[in-house]
C-alpha cells in the first residue's frame, strides 16, 4: 500500500529537520572537541631557543610558541635568572593564538655586566589576561624553564 503524497512529504521534511538539528548539535560541539584535541596535542606551548647579550647590556631572547584563541589577551612573557631563583623580567609581547607555531623575540636593556655570555636559565610563559570585574587577572597557560646559552652580540 502506497502512502499518500502528503504523508511522504511530511516524512521527507521531518528527515531534513532531523538532519539539520543533528548538524547544528555537531557544530555546537566542535569548539569543545577542538579544545580537547588541543590539550592532547600539547597546545599552549612556549620555548626559548636563543639568547644574546651585548657589551653594553642589551639582552635579546627568542623562541617560538603556539596557543589557541581564547578570546582574551594572551601574551608571551620571559624572565632570565639573575641569581639563584631571582628573575629579571622582560616586557611581554602580544601572542597570536591561532593554533600555529609563531616566532617571538624580545630585547631589553639590562645593566652592563649583569649578564655574561654562557649558560643561563630562562622562564617562558603564555599568560592570558581575563576580565574579572574591573581588573584583568592573569591565567598562566604554559610555563617552562629552559637552559639557554647567551652568545655575545
Describe the structure.
Strands 1, 2, 3, 4, 5, 6, 7 and 8 form an 8-stranded mixed beta sheet that branches. The termini are far apart. It is built from 1 helix and 8 strands; from the N terminus they run H-E-E-E-E-E-E-E-E. The radius of gyration is 25 Å and the shape is globular. The longest helix is centred in the first third of the chain and has 37 residues. By secondary structure, the chain is α+β, with helices and mostly antiparallel strands. About 21% of the residues have low confidence.
What's this model, at a glance?
By secondary structure, the protein is of the alpha+beta class. It is built from one helix and eight strands.
Name some characteristics of this structure.
24% helix, 1 helix, 153 residues, alpha+beta, 8-stranded mixed sheet
How large is the share of residues in beta strands?
A: over 45%
Largest sheet: 8 strands, mixed
Shape: globular
Number of strands: 8
Poorly predicted sequence stretches spanning 5 or more consecutive residues: 9-40
Strand-pairing-aware structural class: alpha+beta
Distance between the termini: 88 Å
Indicate the mean pLDDT: 78
Set out the fold topology.
Elements: H1 5-41, E1 45-53, E2 58-66, E3 73-83, E4 86-89, E5 93-94, E6 102-109, E7 118-132, E8 135-152
Parallel strand pairs: 1-8
Antiparallel strand pairs: 1-2, 2-6, 3-4, 3-5, 3-7, 7-8
Amino acid at each position: 500500500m502506497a502512502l499518500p503524497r502528503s504523508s511522504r512529504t511530511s516524512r521527507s521534511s521531518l528527515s531534513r529537520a532531523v538532519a539539520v538539528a543533528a548538524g547544528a548539535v555537531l557544530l555546537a560541539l566542535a569548539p569543545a572537541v577542538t579544545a580537547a584535541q588541543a590539550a592532547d596535542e600539547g597546545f599552549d606551548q612556549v620555548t626559548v631557543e636563543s639568547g644574546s647579550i651585548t657589551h653594553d647590556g642589551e639582552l635579546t631572547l627568542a623562541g617560538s610558541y603556539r596557543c589557541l584563541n581564547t578570546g582574551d589577551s594572551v601574551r608571551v612573557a620571559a624572565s632570565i635568572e639573575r641569581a639563584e631563583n631571582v628573575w629579571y623580567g622582560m616586557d611581554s609581547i602580544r601572542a597570536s593564538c591561532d593554533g600555529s607555531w609563531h616566532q617571538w623575540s624580545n630585547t631589553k636593556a639590562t645593566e652592563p655586566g649583569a649578564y655574561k655570555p654562557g649558560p643561563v636559565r630562562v622562564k617562558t610563559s603564555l599568560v592570558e589576561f581575563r576580565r574579572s570585574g574591573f581588573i584583568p587577572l592573569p591565567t598562566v597557560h604554559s610555563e617552562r624553564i629552559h637552559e639557554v646559552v647567551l652568545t655575545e652580540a
